[in-house]
Prior knowledge:
By secondary structure, the chain is of the alpha/beta class.
Amino acid sequence: MQYLPVCLQLQGTPVVLVGGGTVGTRKARLLLRAGANLTVVSPQISPELEGSLAQHGGIWQQSEYAETDLHGKKLVIAATPSREVNQRVHDDAIALSLPVNVVDDPELCTFIFPAIIDRDPIIIAVSSSGQSPVLARLLRRKIEALVPAAYGRLARFAGRMRTLVKEHIPEEGPRRLFWEQTMESTVAEQVMSGREQAAEQQLRERLRDADSLYRGEVYLIGAGPGDPDLMTFKAARLLQRADVVLYDRLVAPKIVEMARKDAERVYVGKRRAEHALPQVEINQLLLDLALQGKRVARLKGGDPFVFGRGGEEIELLARHKVSFQVVPGITAGSGAACYAGIPLTHRDHAQSVRFVAGYLKNDSVDQNWSSFQSTTETLVFYMGLLGLPMICEQLQAHGRSPETPIALVERATLMEQRVLRGTLATMTEIVRREKPTAPTLIIVGDVVRLHEDLAWFGEA
């Protein structure tokens, strides 16, 4: 390891920066944000730097560099375009035993500036030891995408609660375990969502109820229509946290693979007349696992609150006061339409959209068909493959034109996606000939005409 990562406390510390151009301005931003008492030595400085010094109480010493400029300082940075001046700054700093950084010249540095992810008070630094600053910045951007800004709020909340937690849990080991659980609990999610008052109340309740310290929780996660890239950051984060993952047949295998390698996986899929577990047993299993102290991810295809029976699955948890979180997902209607190039609303074709359950119940699709007659409304039928002949028949019987466009999207958003197009009069025969398999989604309305021009994914 060429450099030891450290975090310096610079509040009120006298620091000198030699050079006031573009590079020096960038370094000054960091130093002033960290609270340094900054002096800039340079004949000229950028307007931005001049304004920042005035705002933060820094000093501009309008002169050429001299060795005496380092006297009384604790940290030295050189950022001039002159290699000769930078070398002198380095040599003078070394003679005075001062830490020195010469920007973009690792050989003249006793410390370097890393790329920083600032989630104050959480600070993450990425360094290439001066070998490739561009690569360090690239890695910083990748990490920034994975670390929500709200982690800073969470750290401040934990700081405020430290004394309270220590009073209730004086032993270091149990206290550390409590904090580990809290940082990956609904308390943390409440804080990160800006609901700190509710989070504090929940934390206090956990401290008062010793049994709750060992109680698990459930994450009801919308996995989206299939493409793993459509998962939200929060969904991926909670999935990685889970000890047990319950998933159904609508969840793509690649999404299940995103869980922790040591997480237990339980298939609870359902299809017509074939249930791995009845719904009531799934509900009970979620409760039982949580009461065992486990963190349980329930992966649902699409969105758990759009034909996903998510409300049923959390009712039992709520009655037993088990913590749960619901993470919305991209519902199949939206995902299928976007990947098929069929906008669900369009100024010239449809001004509203309706999501409809299309599954058979007692060999019938029970709907108020007379309410589906507006030609400016797009209809999206979920779970309608078996009921498609009846859907087409009933829409026509209640007034829709046989020439109304209809599309069936099979395995939406996946590489195997296929789009079948026809009309209410022809679609039943097309499906009989092409034999699509679930999961499928049916879109009815004039917007289907746009598919040929707007499709960018899957079969046209």
